[in-house]
């Protein structure tokens, strides 16, 4: 399982689609799966149920997807903060797409479908999440100023060099 993590605007969905084509694996997006299952958009779910309920559901969905068939799976930007998700990702190849706060905001500013963008203290949240992404990542790829195609090539090159996850024990 190839999992993409990173802040909003890192390019997880775009790069995920490119990787799924190149690797011949299905593409999954945890936010889309949640929307399909609840029949409700993420922003509506936040408005009606609040962020803690979203995080619980998000973690359950991700753990289930990670345990399922091989795929390229893009996670929402806040998913790596849940302890069950962190534990569930131990069996996956987790690629952290790095983006600076400034570039992330240029990419997603004003998107009404991302409820976290209107949250006060967003830059502090970004700073807090950096160590979470580092904790779960098995590979890290920079994205600032780069085309998604170049980022996906970089991911593929790095994947070719690293051992499978989890490591094979003898
Ligand atoms: C969130 C990011 C969103 C989505 C939800 C919460 C976050 O996904 O999961 O709005 O907390 O950063 P993207 O990272 O794909 O925008």
Can you lay out the helices and strands and say which pair or pack?
Layout: E1 2-5, H1 12-23, E2 27-29, H2 30-38, H3 42-49, H4 51-66, E3 72-74, H5 83-88, E4 93-98, H6 101-108, H7 122-136, E5 139-142, H8 148-161
Parallel strand pairs: 1-3, 1-4, 2-3, 4-5
Mean pLDDT comes to 95
Series of secondary-structure elements, N-terminal to C-terminal: EHEHHHEHEHHEH
**Uncertain segments:** none
Beta strand %: 5-15%
Provide the gyration radius in Å.
Answer: 15 Å
Annotation, overall tally of beta strands: 5
Instruction: Output the strand order for the largest sheet.
Output: 2-3-1-4-5
User: Biggest sheet, in brief?
Assistant: 5 strands, parallel
- Helix coverage percent: 40-55%
**How does the overall form come out from the CA principal axes?**
globular
Instruction: Report how far the terminal alpha carbons are from each other.
Output: 21 Å
Which small molecules are bound?
A: shikimate-3-phosphate
